[in-house]
# Entry
Amino acid sequence: MSNFVKHTMTTSTSSPSSTDLHDQSVHDLAQALRDKKVSAVELAQHFLDRLNAHANLGAFVAIDSETTLAQARAADARISNGTAGALEGVPIAHKDIFVTKDFVTTAGSRMLKDYRSPFDATVVAKLAAQGVVTLGKLNCDEFAMGSSNENSAICAIGHSTVEPVRNPWDTTRIPGGSSGGSAAAVAARLAPAATGTDTGGSIRQPASFCGITGIKPTYGRASRYGMVAFASSLDQAGPMARSAQDCALLLSAMCGPDLDRDSTSLDVPAEDYLLKLNDSIEGLRIGIPKEFFGEGLAPDVRTAIDVALQEYEKLGAKLVPITLPRTELSIPVYYIIAPAEASSNLSRFDGVKFGHRANKFADLTDMYKKTRAEGFGDEAKRRIMIGAYVLSHGYYDAYYLQAQKIRRMIADDFQSAFKDCDVIAGPVAPTVAWKIGEKSDDPVANYLADIFTLPGSLAGLPGMSIPVGFGAGGMPVGMQLLGNYFQEARLLQAAHRFQQATDWHAHTPKGF
Amino acid sequence: MSLTSTDIARIANLARLELSATESERMLTQMNDFFDIVEQMRAVDTTGVEPLAHPVVVLSEFALRLREDVASEPNQREANQRSAPAVENGLFLVPKVIE
# Structure
């Protein structure tokens, strides 16, 4: 035990001046800012220069250096006058699904191409209240629908056409999705951290594909106010960073009740996830669901996960075989429920109150139809169609209601499993990141690749992804950790202890 | 079960989506591919299982809340209409609905 503590001390206190600013953790940058070793303006400028220099990745869809630098100057002033927040002056970027007053919010859609929100999302406001400076907005799949980031309709900064976001580990590959811009930016050190959202795996899968750390808290922990809605009973915000420690810092600032503005926000006080981060995981029971290690799992991913699990045993954890029998069913269940909710949520895009309106139309109904035909991309249209169908008269019981019943069975399966274990571990995705274009014509192939992240989403459980090695093509492999409701601290602790003993999270893609 | 092009047209109308002929055809194929993987779900015996609309209600201590039906936000008409396609005198403009 004492060995671990010593080890922790030596690895987490690297001198801020010893490495480039963009290689430093959120934790160390916050300290350097408080100690006035670097100013918020200097830091913001460094990252603005860097994200512009690497605009080829397509990670950013909106920047405004004047706004960013003004926020940084205000942060420096608060550091000087002693009113600094916990993250004062730390620059981060937001997934373009969070509405922001000071930047456009597109949700990756033509429908909202130039949309400006009159308010900030609660998560954005909470981070700003702790002093965070916003570098810009990050690319994502349209309305967060997708797992490759190939569904964005927005032209990234430095580009003249719409192009896919590229994975910094191999720019011919996808970064994952839907928080693909967030994952690519953090992996390439264009931002020390980013926000993401996870409906069916949209934080965990891109984190895995880009070799970074991300966490989705328990459904209802982070406010959904100001997150452009995709599937309201599933959407959850979370941080994406390079370590569990940085995720803990950010998640502490992001969570907490927002009872007046989000009817599904839980009345559970915010937590300081750093408090127990360093506690030992001696005796931690890690459940290994056999359904996550079947035929569909690529051998390279399996090997990396197996080695990581052996590392956990060395750290004193016990591996416990468990079963999540309805893992495969989670695919149809999710792809009924999420599109049903999406078709309802996206009905607000009618060309009247905000966003795109078609130029030519015959009457009101025609205006709706043409506006939506022009404004939505293929994947959004598919999900609207699936959703409208499963909610329609005569099909509701057979599809939507049946899916909701199996959703409860899936949630119950987890409660049975958690009788025997404290956390659950397995792969995030069956393979490493695939090539751009490889599955873009096959929506069902994309859906099937979500198999390991969907069960936890349907149950509303907290889940995270941590880098545990490299697989085919030198691409990162992420391991998924799932906890019971409100067990974010335990997940972060398990992830942190692993990252104290290994350095998979510290690898940098070549050229960044 | 297999959807037909008539179904696609009916659903597109419900969803207020204009689909081109090519789009409709592709949509038909893709939706039928999708509903192939949905079949396994229909066979599951769910007798007596309560539908779960919302993950939070699994935890009995977290019932969904109701709030008083009162305005909680300040009037921001101008800011809210800034991104509207057509506005006049603070009103949203739409094509004529009643002749």
